[in-house]
Amino acid sequence: MRPQPPTNVRDLDLEKPNAARMYDYYLGGSHNFESDRALAGQVEQVAPWVKHVAGINRAWLRRAVDFLMAQGIRQYLDLGSGIPTVGNVHEIAQRRHPDTRVVYVDYEAVAVHHSFELLRDNDNAAVVWADVRDAKAVLEHEETRRLIDFSQPVGLLCAGLLLFIGDEYDPAGLVAAYRDACAPGSYLAISTMSRDEADPRTAEQLAGLLKLYEMADERVYPRTKEEIAAWFAGTELVEPGLVPLHRWRPERSSDGDPMWTQHESSPARLLGYAALGRVL
């Protein structure tokens, strides 16, 4: 089934850089355009660790899904999933349990198109073309309802998503809207960027990155650890709690997570936090 027409999504614009396609570029993907690569190159000039940030975040997502599969979670709602590249949630999960159901949600046209092509023959995975800021539209979408049984535990994934949600959209309230739709025993997984632990040089580089991203179609909103912790209201944090991404259960990875060990001396390791919370 093809994605249904959305009410608040982004049309394809090849001339304007796009954050999702830039992330794909940082991860070594091929679903990006010259405008994306040009701005990404400028970002790398001012913040040479930016690819490390992308790799560390992707490695954390793999570890998080591995953990959730071990807890018996067999359905996932991946918000702001971006462009499909190596290590997608459905690939990780269905390799362990083929009947695992996954719904991806994004509003960027290239991400949705390539996700649909990737999932064309996969009855247990789908993409919803929608703006995650409209929780009601996402939760009530026919594909979400087809694959996700909200009376059973769900893995709710927000990997890097809230970095692009401004305060005017009440990120805590948005998380709560999705969390409240999930049954007790579900898990909320969040990763996002912070400058709390950045040294002065890295903080200056991050400021340069933020200015450049304003040229793209997204603004970037680093948060404090306290702000991020508040998003986990109504859950019980899984050990080791809210920590830098590379410190979240690195020993649990099925593949050793070369992404973060390769960059363990990079400033990128101090630029984000992640946690999983079990919904009470």
Automatic annotation (TrEMBL):
Keyword Metal-binding set for record: no
Pfam families, sorted: Methyltransf_19 (PF04672)
Gene3D superfamilies: Vaccinia Virus protein VP39
Any GO BP: methylation
Keyword Transferase: yes
UniProt entry keywords in alphabetical sequence: Methyltransferase, Transferase
Cited SUPFAM superfamilies: S-adenosyl-L-methionine-dependent methyltransferases
Domain of life: Bacteria
A GO molecular function held by the record: methyltransferase activity
Protein name: S-adenosyl methyltransferase
Annotated organism of origin: Actinophytocola oryzae
